[in-house]
Amino acid sequence: MLNAEIQQFLTIRNFLRFKLLNYQCLFLAMSMHLFPAMTLRIARDADLPDVLRLIGRIRARDLDEVKREMRQSQGIAAIDLEEVTLVDLEVVRFLAASELAGVRVLNPSAYIRDWVSREKELLGEKGV
């Protein structure tokens, strides 16, 4: 296991500060469990009933819960990612497919927006 100083260096804040944030670094850090284990939380605002707000880390295993919430709350027009910290490939593919189906993705971080855009291009090429 890495010592405490190296673990401290490998936090998302330091990735951003040293501009080392890229997909490979994120996957490495995720696989080494260096990020705090904040799980997904789903919230709804009474003022914006058609917006599903996701908070924390979203993994493929969380998608069933997100999809279930979207089905139960018919009329979801947007997914707000302002407080999302980390996603994996399956989540990005879900977000890309959701956008193609007309659901807006609000406030994603730059890396998520870029990744979703690339996946949408791939889905478009496949004719999905």
Can you describe what's shown?
This protein has 128 residues and is α/β, with parallel strands linked by helices. The chain folds into 2 domains: 1-35, no CATH class; 36-126, Transcription Regulator spoIIAA (2-Layer Sandwich), CATH 3.30.750. It contains 6 helices and 4 strands. The longest helix has 17 residues, at 110-126. It is globular and about 40 Å long. It starts with a helix and ends with a helix.
Q: Which terms summarize this structure?
A:
128 residues, alpha/beta, Transcription Regulator spoIIAA, 2 domains, 4 strands, 47% helix, globular
What is the fold's blueprint, element by element?
Layout: H1 4-9, H2 12-17, H3 23-31, E1 41-45, E2 48-58, H4 63-72, E3 78-87, H5 89-100, E4 104-106, H6 110-126
Parallel strand pairs: 2-3, 3-4
Antiparallel strand pairs: 1-2
Helix pairs in contact: 5-6
Strand order of the largest sheet: 1-2-3-4
Overall pLDDT: 79
> Which architecture of the largest domain does the CATH hierarchy give at level 2?
2-Layer Sandwich
Look at the structure and name the CATH superfamily of the largest domain.
STAS domain
Given the structure, what is the number of helices?
6
Q: How many structurally independent domains? A: 2
Overall 3D geometry? globular
Q: In which range does the helix fraction lie?
A: 40-55%
Radius of gyration: 16 Å
The major beta sheet can be summarized as: 4 strands, mixed
CATH T-level fold name of the largest domain = Transcription Regulator spoIIAA
Give the number of DSSP strands. Answer: 4
* SSE succession: HHHEEHEHEH
Task: Write down the CATH class of the largest domain.
Answer: Alpha Beta
The fraction of residues in strands falls at: 15-25%
Category by helix and strand content? alpha/beta
Stretches with pLDDT under 50, minimum 5 residues: none
